[in-house]
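Data availability (excerpt). The following record was deposited with the supplementary files.
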Amino acid sequence: MKQPSDHPAIPPRKIGVLLINLGTPDAADTRAVRRYLAEFLSDRRVVELPRLVWQPILRGVVLTTRPKKSAHAYGQVWTEAGSPLAAIARAQSDALQGAFGPDVIVDWAMRYGRPAIADRLAALKEQGCERILLAPLYPQYCAATTATANDKAFAALAGMRWQPAIRTLPPYHDDPVYIDALATSVAAALAALPFAPDAVVASFHGMPRRTLQLGDPYHCHCQKTARLVSDALGRELHVAFQSRFGPAKWLGPATDQELVRLAGEGKRKVAIFAPGFSADCLETLEELAIRGRATFLAAGGTDFAYLPCLNDSAGGIAMLTALIARELEGWVSRA
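Predicted structure:
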């Protein structure tokens, strides 16, 4: 049927994949970090306190003191390409472009900061994507990561007249494809070290202990990931949780305390990796690789190594390709 001459232009039908990660400030300076932290710490999924209680604290002491410290930390890991997390997210998206056929567009967004989820969803829709897979790149499900990324996307969809069909990537903490990629990467990194570690630590991002009591599966997902990787490597892993914030009780043991404990027990050579992060970022490159090293050496350790995330490595991209292709079944025919 021929369209009327005044009919709006309609792009060819496409399918979109939107990779989503946590976020990053636009620059490693106090103003940009304050803007980023204000958005991040205002998320009710992240800080589950009544707004009337939390906002005065956030707008007062937190955003007065924390941005300067965080900006200094970002400055230690900032690159010519900008934020490590943003650079790797872009590289992951570029590497996946074309992996699912000519009718699938891969894009990326951040839950906090830029590029914003709403903006990239709109861009995919404008390119003709009538079906979109939201892919929060968090192996272990947590309301403060996976759920809030999906929340933000659904809020953007609520403002669309013509919504695309939506699917979401489920957590993949125990998926054989993920476990194999992670174990293979860790094994190769360990083999390349100039020393044999006395202990290997799997450090996950911390969450308040209250989230476990409220039914969040994150702690269980982390423990299962560690157990499966330990089995695949054939060696013990010491599980710990990093990035504590505020006075609440957090999941433990704390990573910094675990490093001190291991050194005190005579384990002088340690390697550490971060299975919950799909891309290296401030929490891995500064908190673990820099501060973690300092903590361990000060406690009596002699050798310390941080093992990188899967990032845009061949193994990491192969894993993401397999996971995403599975979720696109029915929308995209496998060759």
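Summary of structural features: The mean pLDDT is 95.
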